[in-house]
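Progress against Task 2.4 (sequence-to-structure conversion) is shown through the following example record, which the project officer requested during the mid-term review.
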Amino acid sequence: MPARSCCAVLPPASEAGVARLSHVKHGAFGPCSNPCMQRTTGDCGEAASSAPLASLASSSPRPPSPWRRRLCGAGFFACLPLKALAAETPLRIETIQSEPFGRLGPQGPSGLMYDIGMLIVQRAGLAAENHVVPYARTVLSLQNGTADMVLRFTNDELRQVAHQVAPVLQLPTVVVSRREAPVQRLEELSHRTLSVARSFPVPERLSQLPGLQLQAVNNNEHAIQMLMGRRVDAAYGSNLGLFGAARGLGLRMQALAPPVVVERQTFWLHLSRSRATPALIERLSQAVEALQREGAIHRLYERALEAFGDDRMPA
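Structure tokens generated for the chain above:
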């Protein structure tokens, strides 16, 4: 049995494969407009003549210099379509490891955002690798170039290191408290403690409450553990994130008070600035728009909601 992995690889959906560059036939990618290429190779991928090197040397007083050959190679790659280049460099996706967005199980990685991410790149016809990683790591991965694409709520830190390509899914953000000590209005949090996942965006209507103490934690699971351990008075996050974490920890919905809805925030498709070319941005954006228009993303969200089986879950 193969070793368990946190990564899945998606081949390009549009073609079975792309021919190796050494096997490119004459005219396969159309004529090349690069004058350097035309001087030495004619159309992309074919030599201008099959004559021996000696006859080529006698007909040309100055053979191409090394720098010219390098430019010719660059011109060749400029003639390649995006599909061929994408096949050479799969898009590296990172999915947040938090229920129900991303998880690792006996059958491999899965989850709502994991599935949506794979659906987007498949619709765009791109090869991809999808890794499930800790929540806070996603920002660092986009920053240091080890990830190309992340689906999550945005914040100032993410805006600095990634391009926001398209809004993917809007979710309610909520304050959750214990059943025996319910928080029924936001004003009740004044001079109390609130746990929130590190780097999760907190709106001013919460952060500016008088005397509120924000306790940064690693993820939603940690936020719920702090709440149930009576170390904080409430936890803040998305509806699916907090209730999914509670379910993953073996808690029943009845252990929590009805949530207080704060606002609605959006999961965005973030693309690292090193990969954010206009062509790729357009391709991914069109894929997201098509999936939303067809209702595919919303159906995945509805399926995740149904798994909780509790009408107190704000949709």
